[in-house]
Structures
1.
Amino acid sequence: MVYGVDLGSRCVKIAAEDRVGFEFMGPFDTAGFYRRYIEPDTEGGKLRRDELDLESEARMAATGYGRARLGRGAVMVPELEAIIEGVKALTGLSDALILDVGGQDSKALLMRKGRMEDFAANDRCAASSGRFLENMSTALGMNLEEMGRYWENPVELSSTCAIFGETELVGLMGEGHKLQDLAAGVNHAIVRRLLPLLSRFQADILILTGGVAHNQALRRLLVEARSVQVVVPDPPDFVAAVGCCRLARGLE
């Protein structure tokens, strides 16, 4: 048994791999996970494995924003490498463009022959991240799954800022626009902000990873904009955790 932990900015995901396959735990709210499951320490902290019913001696690898929180008891691995390994494990593909939309940033990785050939990242603005969609869904009174169903008749959002975009959305609601059309406008807006990240790369297959990959509208709009085959690993938000398992196994 090996474990992979992806400590993201918004959620924590855990994957376990044995000879049969993968099992998944989470997603957990990051702040709540830290409070309950991580024992603080000057060397970076240690996961309370017993609280999660995890084997105490099994090898573990960790990645993500909070990986330093597991300074004891886990091997630290780069996030981009974990994403690549997770994609290969869950899809069997080795040549594709990967779009990972996380809670606070988004990344595009060009994978050739199972290795990362190039990448680009947008970590300066939350408007192309999952946090943007969370804020907008809260303003609309919809959960993320419902908001992801709408892409037709979009109301255009002009703001390029996650904070001001929410203010603009509330104003448009006051003007009487349908919530479904506003949700479609939100989905079109995030796709417009993601396309420049993808523009420097050419690939026939686009793999979506991260929790935002559950958004049906995002998948449809990217197909229309890029004329590519879109592949979503199952489950898309555990890709990096799965990659950690593979990297941990390689260290055995």
2.
Amino acid sequence: MIRACTNDQFVSISAIVNDAAEAYRGVIPPDRWKEPYMPDDVLAVEISRGVRFWGFEEDGELLGVMGIENVKDVTLIRHAYVRTARQNQGIGGALLSHLRGLTERPMLIGTWAAADWAVRFYQGYGFRVVIPVEKDRLLRTYWMVPERQIETSIVLACPRWES
């Protein structure tokens, strides 16, 4: 079942994010890795800024989360994670498909350039990698990330996107 996450699921959201983010250890630049990957105070700020998390639950257990955030004229997919033990079972795809159905706006996704598995996942759902100069502009326009993250990230756009 997919449903909007509630405040009482904060601890579960944090646990899923930090469990699944272990895949980035040793892949993304070491200066971008943190321990934990997303501290609770950062997660709280993301939620307070408008990231709405949706969760995939099975037998009452939250197995995956994906955030959605409306920024200006687009919708961003933010913080998409599935528990490591439950990856590659369709949970991420179900969440992405559900969130795509929530908006008519163009959707953008930012991820680490070195996370080739994430890039392939989104491409499998019709998202395309934008050219580097467009990526830089989009990250500066729609995200609040440091320059180093802009250098080491990519942006994928849904088919509705027109640059």
3.
Amino acid sequence: MTAAMMLPTILPLLGIFGRLVETRPDRATLLLLVIAGYLSIWAAFGLAAHAIDYLLHAFVVTVPWLTFNGWIVGAGILTAAGAFQFSAFKYRCLDKCRAPFSFVNEHWRGRAAHRQSFSLGVHHGLFCVGCCWAIMLLMFVVGTGSVGWMLVLGALWQSRRTSRGAVG
């Protein structure tokens, strides 16, 4: 589901990168390496988030008061996610995502093409996680398995980004 929600954020970068390497015989491989690097970061984030969620649930079970007032954990995550939306760190990461040409120009030199392609995807993934981790944690609050809530939150997130002129 992360791939379905977050892969569209890399499409502008892939378009620019694809045009940059369109005459190369290994173009498809280079594009796949960018995608693999990007998704590897999101996979690592997903594993870490699930591990933290598991540990948090294990902790809540040991504290009877929290077991009966579990909404406090959800409210805390919602508050942290809301506060993060106004942080300088989020906007610094978002600036990198909004300028795919500058990002490719900064991270691609054409030497060691396979390594640099994967690295380009990894770096873009890191910045994408940097600006979107909070909304992903909301998925745990509303229910990771709830496709309906994920679609609603994803649509709201995308409409907010589009209304602000965000590219990625």
